[in-house]
Fold this protein.
Amino acid sequence: MKIAVLSGKGGTGKTTVATNLAYSLNKADKMVQLLDADVEEPNAHIFFNVNYEDEENVQILLPVIDRNKCTHCGICARSCEFSAITVSSKYIMVFDSLCHGCGVCSMVCPVKAISERPKDIGTIKLGKTEEGIIFGEGIMNIGEPSPVRIIRQLKKHIAPAADVVILDSPPGTSCPVIETIHDTDFALLVTEPTPFGLHDLKLAIETTRQFNILIGVVINRYDGSYKEIEAYLDREQIPLLMTIPYDPQIARDYSKGFLFSKSQNYTDKFLDLFKRIEVIAKC
Amino acid sequence: MKIMLATDNPSLEGKISDRFARTSYFLIYDLENGNFQVIDNSSIGTHGAGPKAVQLAIDNNVSAIISAIPGETAMEAIKESKIKVYDGRGLNAKEAIEKFKSGEIKEI
């Protein structure tokens, strides 16, 4: 089973849920893989001792223009979805920072004036935590505009033998999130009991509804005072699978890089969360 | 000679927008006959607005742009294209055109 942990809003506790769920399932003798797809700020590794075994570069191909061949016809500029090429009768200009490496410019050029050169945009690191969780993370280079290719390459390392694969998604609802949830079985949405949390949860749910994917919600920092999220979930018939209490001890543990599910009480709660996911997935 | 103005309104009364590439409208104004064409820029996508706007200027044979200060990638493309940019902040399109004609407007 592949579970993507999402949230519309940043800072609601995706990594908290992803890491603690991975830890708890591993403790219950499942073969678990944790992939940190939040490649702009991968921080799941902080909560584990990871023995890295392998590393690979992620590259995209950027256009190189042969100015002797270019006829300034402008077909490449018009074909580029991201306006990464500007052409006038006298010059042609490539904006590397806007290029997504799709290659369409070199395909459409009628005089074959465009070749491609690779550019490193990030790294994939693979290993195992000391508990035995299969671990992987993507790291995007500073200044790169799009993490999508890094996430795609990271997902090529999904271990077929794993019982459960947990993907820690980037926040938001844009391309990197869609790349992360693509081909997963379940989207676990983490939110916080605030108007912002609810607003962005709705956006995230609307996004998941574009896909054929099962969903459930976790409310983090729950103290029972803000009821709007539960009311919304009731109305929409979306299952609330877990609440994590607003507990200073959890915050203290988190700030030190400790997993609060190391206490048996919480291990059981995360195992219970997984059972509920399994029940939904079997229906 | 044609100039391109980034405005918040599709008329000569429109104010020069605070932003260049993500302005609501572009007016392509012909200095010879005073005719102008309006380009609705409001549905611009999320990517590459700067170069897209400069490409628009090039495709329309524009010699000068009047707008607020363009962003980094737009500026790069403008420099390369040899099109001149003028600071029209605080003016409406009509005033900007007059100041352009009389040379009172500042080049960015």
